[in-house]
């Protein structure tokens, strides 16, 4: 078997066998297949697709490319959560400590920024000292001792996904159902939880732009989950405008901390509570979704969720004084205001364009080796449905380069669609696919 024949087969729209997929994953993980050959195959998959069997085989092969964690010691219901990606998506930072505050073990492996979307790991690393690359032993110990650990893909868990994920980001091969489904489910299978809640985002700021594609992705991941013996539920959420107000690494951490201190943005609250309610259900702690949301509110109001976040940051080496006083976070050199050039209602804020703008300011990567700037990004002041007066501030641009900041102000002016007609606030929860 050789990689050139495998690339040619997919290039010619043929189905790959399990053996061919296993060969590619094994040899690419071991470094025997080059990045350019892997890129060619990934692009061929992107263009010509994979059927259900190929997608399942790719997922299982990637899941087994490294260690497989066994979390059964933590009980019969270990629940994990993952998002298919979005703009301003700081849900994990908030939801993970909430769930841990219920005594439900949270052993979560998150990703870095991908395409125009942000990554939880990049956000966590903007907390000075926070170590996302601890050993497997420490990871398990932390879950044992404080009930929570949030790490990057630095353990030897699904290393094939780690390589392919970074590659896809730089070859414009992100928004593809077989590639997203296998990437997410391989990590979830390797990480050892037996119940999974997936946030499947849909809209301009998501990889799935419409309801049908997001539903298809949900069904694909549910099917793979079932085959792997993991109960999986997909919550389809709207990503037409950025989630919450902040977009950018430490800016999002600050918003997440605010939330845990009970200053909750409505759309973010709806998404966090819906996902959390299903996690609680899968953990066997409550069948009624609305009642579960009430319980979540209690965990925030009582300060238990915030306390759990502090414990998490401390345990992983982070400086908790930044969480206690978020004013301590390093700020960008320039904060520029974008003001409305007329009165009216905000009709649209294209989330993808906001994500790209945040990347332009330095919050994302162009090549996989690029460093990211923790301080830059965008903080919205007005969201879809809001009325705005002429000259009122629509958003703040955080930049370390004045020229770039000015360009971003202009670009954001075009992204904000303000019209005379009022529109409803965006409906956050689109569907539940079980
Ligand atoms: N999140 C992942 O882990 N992988 C993807 O492909 C997209 C979002």
Task: Outline the fold blueprint.
Blueprint: H1 3-11, H2 18-29, H3 35-48, H4 52-63, E1 79-83, H5 91-101, E2 106-109, H6 120-124, H7 136-146, E3 148-151, H8 159-170, H9 177-191, E4 195-202, H10 211-227, E5 231-238, E6 246-247, H11 249-260, H12 266-282, H13 289-301, H14 304-315, H15 321-324, E7 334-339, E8 344-349, H16 351-363, E9 377-380, E10 387-388, E11 393-399, H17 402-415, E12 416-419, E13 429-433
Parallel strand pairs: 1-4, 2-3, 4-5
Antiparallel strand pairs: 5-13, 6-9, 7-11, 8-10, 8-12, 9-11
Helix pairs in contact: 1-3, 2-4, 4-9, 5-12, 5-14, 8-9, 9-10, 12-13, 16-17
This protein binds uracil.
Uracil (URA) binds next to helix 9.
Approximately what portion of the residues adopt beta-strand conformation? 5-15%
Largest sheet, strands/sense/barrel: 4 strands, mixed
| Small-molecule binders | uracil
Q: Mean of the pLDDT scores?
A: 95
Radius of gyration: 21 Å
In spatial order, strands of the major sheet run: 1-4-5-13
